[in-house]
Every structure is written in C-alpha cells, then in structure tokens.
C-alpha cells in the first residue's frame, strides 16, 4: 500500500492499494474511491462488537478490498486536526483515545484497552475504555487540533488536562491525581483531576479534543426556546 496525507487541518488520507489488498475502516470514513473497491461490513465477533460499543465506536467496521486490479480509497477525518500513520508491529502497540481509529491494514488488530485502575477510568478524562492497536501493519489515527509529541523516559511523567491525551505507546502507564488545594480545585477552572502519563514511551497530545470543541460551540448554537 502507498498513501499520502493531505489537506490539514481538514485532512484526508489517500491510499493506493494493490489487487486483493484490504483495508479495515471506521464506519462512515470513506470519502471517495475507485469503482473496483468492494465493501464488506463486518463486526468481528460478539466480543469485539461489545468492546467497540463500550468504547464509543461504531459497532461494525467496513472492509474495502481492491478487486480486478489496483484501487484507490480516500478516508477523511471527522473534525479539524490531523491524521497520523503508525507502523504497528509485535511489541509496538499503540493505545489511543476512543473515536481516534480511522483505518488499518488487514494485519492490524483493533481491541479495547481497559484502564487497570478504576479511578483512572472514571476520572482520567479518557473514560474507562480506550483502544489498542496491535498486530502487524499500518494504522491511521485521527487527532483533534494540533498534535504535539513527547518521548518519556522510564519514570518520567507528564501531567495532562483531562481529554488531551490522544495516544501513547502501550509501555506508558496512566494514573490520575487531584488538583492540589481547595481553591485551585474549585475556582482554578482546571477541574478536580488531572491525567498523569508515565514513561517509558512516546505520547501524542492534541490541542482541541472534540468534547472541548463541542463545549466551546454550545453557547453559540440557537435553542428552540
């Protein structure tokens, strides 16, 4: 497969695939394609269906396969931001926020990732369930707004406001901590909890989580009343 990512901050990834090559794509992500790209909707078993439902993703994935020769398919992001390509391989899994998955090659597995600590899942800003991309192949993930990357050494941490963690290497760990001080927690505008990511591993942070974007736009949406 050959691909190019174009059009930021309203990005699209254009994939040129060989005859018989297949991509697994998030439902509704296809923007355009050549006529020989054949679609098949699959759930991947009851366990994966339930996991995707819990993680907030579409229950089914669309498999697009080139038939009768090479094909082209373009996959567009849902919100302004960026699309990143990840080389997934054994021992190099990626854990991403829910709704981040866009598409992947056939050898990549998409599973749910449970936070091991209950408090992290409830208060960490990413919810109790995230997504794990494992296996072998290229996966495309969409981030909201600008994406900033950091390498964390073993034991090195980054404190992140809830929702701003886009993805991380599976070698990283997540915890939560309360904002110190009653006045800070109540009047600081940063909420009661922050997410703490600890290395070793790479992390990707985005600047405008879609939930924050929705909250910023809500006052400007006319109500029926």
From TrEMBL:
Family annotation (InterPro entries): AIM24 (IPR002838), AIM24_sf (IPR036983), Trp_RNA-bd_attenuator-like_dom (IPR016031)
Pfam families xrefs: AIM24
Protein name per Swiss-Prot or TrEMBL: TIGR00266 family protein
Species of the source: Butyrivibrio proteoclasticus
Source taxonomy: Bacteria, Bacillati, Bacillota, Clostridia, Lachnospirales
């Amino acid at each position: 497969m050959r691909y190019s990512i174009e059009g930021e901050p309203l990005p699209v990834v254009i994939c040129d695939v060989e005859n018989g090559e297949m991509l697994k794509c998030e439902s509704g992500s296809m923007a355009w394609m050549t006529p020989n790209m054949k679609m098949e909707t699959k759930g991947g078993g009851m366990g994966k269906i339930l996991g995707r439902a819990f993680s907030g993703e579409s229950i089914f994935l669309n498999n697009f396969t080139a038939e009768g020769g090479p094909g082209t398919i373009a996959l567009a992001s849902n919100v302004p931001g960026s699309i990143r390509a990840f080389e997934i391989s054994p021992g190099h899994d990626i854990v991403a926020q829910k709704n981040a998955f866009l598409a992947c090659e056939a050898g990549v597995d998409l599973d749910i990732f449970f936070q091991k600590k209950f408090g992290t899942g409830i208060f960490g800003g990413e919810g109790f369930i995230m997504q794990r991309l494992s296996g072998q192949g290229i996966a495309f993930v969409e981030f909201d707004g600008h994406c900033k990357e950091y390498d964390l050494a073993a034991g090195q941490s980054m404190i992140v406001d809830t929702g701003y963690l886009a993805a991380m290497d599976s070698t990283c760990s997540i915890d939560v901590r309360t904002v110190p001080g009653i006045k800070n927690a109540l009047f600081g505008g940063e909420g009661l909890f922050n997410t703490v990511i600890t290395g070793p591993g790479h992390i990707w942070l985005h600047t405008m989580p879609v939930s924050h974007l929705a909250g910023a736009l809500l006052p400007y949406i006319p109500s029926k009343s």
